[in-house]
Request: fold
Amino acid sequence: MLLKELLIASSGELGEIQIKGITDDSRKVEEGYAYVCVVGTVSDGHNFAASAIEKGAAVIIAQRDTGFSNQVIVEDTRAAYALMSAAWFSYPADKLRLIGVTGTNGKTSVTHMIKHILEENGEKVGLIGTIQNMIGDVVYSTERTTPNCYELNSLFADMVKEGCTCAVMEVSSHALDQKRVFGLTFEVGIFTNLTQDHLDYHITMDNYLEAKKKLFSMCKTAVINIDDMYAQRLINGLECKLITVSAEKTNASYYAQNIDYRADGVSFDLNGENDMELSLSTGGKFTVYNAMSAVVSSLVLGIDKQTVKKAICEQTGIKGRAEVFKNPFDFTVIIDYAHTPDGLENILKTFEECKKGRLVVLFGCGGDRDKTKRPIMGRIASEKADFVIVTSDNPRSENPSAIICDILEGMKNTDTPYKVIENRIEAIEYAIINAQSDDIIVLAGKGHETYQILANETIHLDEREVLSVAMEKRKELK
Reply:
């Protein structure tokens, strides 16, 4: 492909160069490649331009002079790389209806709900998200919520090749800020909520909000949860069509009433242009919001009311999202990804409302991430639960005991009993062996993850496997 076909503007005389590949990673450069100098959060790609030339790069795409004659200067290399990636794969996103979901919590649940509804309508659907990427029923592993722009367009191209008509994707604040989705147009953009997370990257909630808001300059219709405290600021200045959802206000485009929370699910009436009675197998207020966003977005896409209702009510649980671990004893175990203050509070409130015995929560906080949320989560756990087990999450390069100390700061002014067990496997075994009749035990933080990130290695840790072993130990002891 000629450079002028990849980089429409600014290529000049270099536009006739034949390009054999594109990358923003100098380690992946091969003979005839275009190397894009992206300024990252840790390193600056311009510093590796010489290395790229040595490996045979045909052209350098840069924001500033690198000293090489075969360079093209552009205003923004991130934006350029996104557009070049789309061109390299022949603009596959233009052949798909894109649905983007952003927010702190709920993205995974909403995307899976929408995928299920679209498939009930006879569509073949691609999915991009935190747990996995999917093309129809085929599952692909994922390393981040939203892939980089080259990987993203490669996925879109595979989806088109396999006959997909739609792609539903989680759009992270990092992806929006780093222009991984630059140049895309979404049929529907969905906002779930905004609560404290990723402040190690965004620094302030204002920056976090502005990153999320970028999705709604790229979509035709916005579906916004107006019960969120940041919703109005998000809505201000939007030029796309706006549809609002609420579980508290009747002035929304669609609103929930007669909500009935149960241990095994939730039922409610959805009122709006298309009224319907809904009953879902996952409980909690967060399920009401997730379902409303998925249902309304599907209606926007033109799917008929009866198909939407049938699909959403038949939707089964999602791995690591209020997932019930079946066991032979008279207590309940829930596995959930809750790793933010809001996520933890939501899952605990869900089961606080329907508990018969104790509500026990086991959780930790990730290392090398926002430290300010740790005492907040400690406070929430001690206020909502009857017993707290503080343990390790993904400590990364931090000392796990130091992370736990930060959590305990938030528990100082409560009298809720707690136990600290740093080793997560031992903590889970303690929870199961000491469980009482009618307890609800929530394992929070890992959810779908089957690993634990330590200082020098990543180890296998699937809580389902740990639970199975713990259940057997309990049988032996009883």
